[in-house]
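2024-03-11 09:14:02 DEBUG pipeline.ingest accepted 1 chain
2024-03-11 09:14:02 DEBUG pipeline.ingest length=155
2024-03-11 09:14:03 DEBUG pipeline.predict start
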Amino acid sequence: MAASSVICPQTVSRSTLVAEPALLSIHRVSSVLNREVKQFGKKYMFDGNAETCWNSDQGSIQWLTLEFPHTVKVSQIQMQFQGGFASQKCTLHGCSKGEELSQIAEVYPEDSNSLQIFSLMEALLDKLKITFEDSTDFFGRIVIYHLDVLGGKKL
């Protein structure tokens, strides 16, 4: 069976820097450039539009935490950065409900505008945290035009 996107409107993401109420259909991230969510907001990572993007504010580490509405089997992650604003190292942590996050993978994206695909050891998860480290931007900003997590529902 082919892997499909496990990100859906019921997927929730949490952040430390954005103080908005948690809504099931809204994705949240660690920061948004100048808090301009209408122009650079988190929803643009997942909207499928090549013209829109999430642009983080400056900082040494940015991250995104996704909570899935049901247990999913994660097998792949896809990311498209803006060249010059890419993460050179992404650490993925995951867990099942009631458990602590543990590292499941490290991936090393290129500083490129191209869609990058990373295959992962399959993992059953209810929560996934992606930490974007070592930005190619001097101020630590990350710009992502596309982010997707692929896999399937737990059988």
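2024-03-11 09:14:41 DEBUG pipeline.report The helical segments are 37-40.
2024-03-11 09:14:41 DEBUG pipeline.predict end
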